[in-house]
User: What shape does this take?
Amino acid sequence: MLKLELRHLGALLDALAGQGKVYAPFRQGGRTDFAWYDGTAGRDAAALDLEHHTARAPKDVLFPQVEDLLRFRQQGKKLGLEAAPLPTESVVAFGVRGCDTAGFAILDKVFLQDPADLYYRARRDSLTVLGLACGELEETCFCRTFGLDPAAPGGDVDLWLAGGALYWQARTDKGRRLTEALGAAVPFTDAADTTADTAAGAAADAVPPAVAAQRDAVHASYDRLPLAELRFDDRLYHHEREAFRSPVWESLAATCLTCRTCTYVCPTCHCFDVRDEKTAPGTTERYRCWDSCMDRDFTQMPHGNPRKGKTERFRQRYLHKLVYFPEDHGGTYACTGCGRCLQACPVSLNIVKVEQALAADLGAVGAAPDGKGGAQ
Amino acid sequence: MQKIEDLMRAKAAAVLADGAADCVLAWKRGIFPYDHAPALFRRGDDLADLVYDVFCPANLAKYLLATSRAGERAAVFLKPCDTYGVNQLLKDHRVVRDRILAIGTPCGGMVDVKKLRGAGCGTILAVKDRGDVLTVTTAKGPVTVAKGEVLLRKCLACKGNAYQIADDEIGTPRGTPPAPADRYAEVRTLEGLSPDERFAFWRQELSKCIRCNTCRDVCPACTCEQCVFDHPGSGVDGKAYVDTSQEALFHIIRAFHVAGRCTGCGECGRVCPQGIRLDLLNHKFAKDIDAFFGPCQPGADADSPAPQSTFRFEDPEPEAVTRQDDRRDRHA
Amino acid sequence: MLVTQEQKQQPAAGAAAGKDTAVGKDTGTGAAAFEPKIVAFCCNWCSYAGADGAGTARKHYPANVKIIKVPCSGRVRPLFILRAFQKGADGVILCGCHPGDCHYMTGNYYARRRMDLLLSMLDYLGVAKDRLRVAWVSASEGARFADLMNEFTAHIASLGENVKLRDMRCRK
Assistant: This one.
């Protein structure tokens, strides 16, 4: 494990920028969000914010809100097609929390399953994730519900802010390559130096006391959170039909505004639309952009929309996360407990309230607590 | 605050029991001290969850569209600023008066959770309202915050404690946050900048937009059956911005469409997940309407014509509007 | 029909007119000189007839001006104007009947209110205020219509290309 004095953060950012485009959390106007470290005013080492959680998930780095795919050009009587080049430029995402690296893993399940999405795969291959262990938790955090550990971010490199320094541990080949490439440009010291009695061979794996203390502190503060004991009810995805027909949807959806906020801040929402737009006489551009199942025209077809109203759209979003996704992916919920929708929903509806209402209702109708037998 | 909540519960139970209303629109307790959600109560048994405190900013007026459309008579708890929205819905012929039981509910200002977090309350575990101050239990211990410091921006532009429409009232009206000396002070400051500075400000502000449409969806004045932004033929139905010009286009059109009908409830600014100063667009139109066509407070009544559906022979010529601006630019 | 034919002849006429106006100053700089695109929304009853009158009176105005006929100035939504800017117009002019002369009695009064607000908002956002104009032109004011278009075209030419409200993809 390596160690870096916090005053060298600027040098680290610059050295990372030498390895690729850097995507990092910056604090601007009282909120923290991921942005490109590209010389834009207000995005410098001083504004780098490793303390607060970001308002939006960093999924743009793999799945941008808008991505060009094709251009059609009329050339005489022929139609010329130009595919957008694959995004192969190296990218470093700095300071990604455990809930968001888990979000990347869920996006991987969607976009990398056969046939893999070429654009996504190109971005994924050229991305190195620097995970950051959580320091302060928010009351909306519930990552442990999904077996995640806020102190083990799970990036290519894992970072801990502890004892006034940044600790650096490469976990994957990508991470080790990046660590080597940074080389002397960053004044790392060996974190093991602090534990003088450790043998040199074991030192690389040893956890420095500052990191261990930080980890314990985070675990202890997690235990005090309101959602610390929250567990999602696995009966839900074994009882799809009951969940679908539950009477709770009507009342839960009654005050949903069907805006797109929850889907756009979510680290796992991945629906997109493909659109064509005429940009000049004879030229049309095709791009894909985020879509939201909350939208009136989502699944709109020439004959109409199979999801007739707000309740059906609302139900689709939550059943996708709580039932359909775990059914298809071995029990993995399409939620990582980041808590963003709990904070962002303008009318305070969220996945936790929905899950609890639904689980209570299933309990009431007497769905079997385990096994798939209950569904007809 | 507890007392009002009890009165509300009793009132809700009474109107549901005697058939005065088919349903009750109110706020429902959440998981945390602050995440009360708007809710539709249909059974007296559910009313234990009804809550009312400084974390009930949502304007319930918009939900009347659905209940009125369904032919239900809804009792709705309305803070003074929310009553403007109901009048505006009536004026726009979007709801049926007989299907609304408007219950005025006193309000002393609502608290912004984001501001609370900014005021040193990192992990909010409990909140106690002590009148002028809030005592917040955080992961690091108790923090005392002055309520005036953490009020929502919309409450800083409070229009007072009078109900514009109310069939019934709960308790007695409260003292409201101090009304601003000039509601349009920030608009005036912006107007005083040079065109390039204004452009830079708005480019920065609007480029944050992720086109979630929440500002539209929450707005009690946005009531079209099919919104132009959802209409595939409109050319502005994009779900994301591919070019910066689209940001300005969306926001001008949205604000223009509600100009003269926007009551200034401030919900759009409150709900924006990107923190865009939408209030500065709506206030600009409100200020211009006052200046060009005479004073107007949308939602103060339910029958006067909306500014964009009427005219006066002596309205200013567009040329005069811009000439005035030129003069001001030179002074700036 | 007459106007359609007249418009077809405009490139020549426009170039001729250009020499007498400020446009000449810009076009004089070379073959690649800036030619502004101008969209004129004209109401069917007064302004479009005014444009017709300009044609029959052999009054020239620049070919840069593309007329879109609308039933009434009150038909024009702010969105029409913003879309014109977005899709490449450098200037937009809305022409209607003089207040009091509207074929539908009051349509232009509503248009006037709308344009008051739109102009003021565009100014507030720091965009395009000088590029949008509202003018009342009656059916008998053919000469005035031509003068107005000459003057507006020269004005827009002096401002240069519209960038702030334009979809820059359209230039690729």
Observations:
- The first helix of chain A runs from residue 9 to 17.
- Residues 2-223 of chain A form one domain.
- The CA atoms of residues 235 and 369 of chain A lie 6 Å apart.
